[in-house]
Amino acid sequence: MVDEPEPPWAYNFFTGVPAPAAAGLVLLPMIMWFWSEFAFLRSPLVNGAMLLIVSGLMVSRVPTYSFKSVRVPYRYVLPILLLVGLLAAFITSSPWITLSLIGGIYIASIPISTRAFGKLKAQMEKRAEVSVDEA
Question: Is residue 51 part of a domain?
Fold first, then answer.
């Protein structure tokens, strides 16, 4: 994939799950067990399955959101800083629940990012067809 140029509209997406996110996803059953104490989360089968699923997502072509080029508008700086402070407070006071929620939100964002990527790709293909027809 190194030789394939990335289209400009795909800059806001990773191809597959990036390594730091994958590390968090692999640890998710253990993190969830710390606060819930559901015995099945300690099962080698559950953890092995999670490891296989996440490793498959890492090498897949599934588009996931990247926030490489996100610029926070000036009027939103204070609310974003307050949200980051609130997140830090939750991680300090209830780390396992907070990390579980963050992991769950990330997992839920994968189908959403795939759909958004597909829409962008379809729009760009449609524009390319229109520009070829006009020429």
Answer: yes
Whole-number Å distance between alpha carbons of 121 and 17: 19
pLDDT tens profile 69-120: 788 899 999 999 999 999 999 999 999 999 999 999 999 999 999 999 999 8
Q: What proportions of the chain, in percent to the nearest 5, are helix, strand and coil?
A: 75, 5, 20
Instruction: Name residue 63's beta-bridge partners.
Output: 15
- DSSP for 58-80, please give it: HHS--EEE--TT----GGGHHHH
| H-run or E-run covering 18 | none
E strands, the chain, where?
Answer: 13-15, 63-65
Residue 63: count other Cβ atoms within 10 Å of its Cβ: 21
Q: What is the three-class DSSP state of 13?
A: strand
In a domain, 2, yes or no: no
Q: What are the backbone dihedrals phi and psi of residue 30, each rounded to the nearest 5 degrees, phi first? A: -65, -45
1 inside domain:
no
Give the count of domains, the chain: 1
Residues spanned by the domain of 33: 8-134
Is 99 a domain residue?
yes
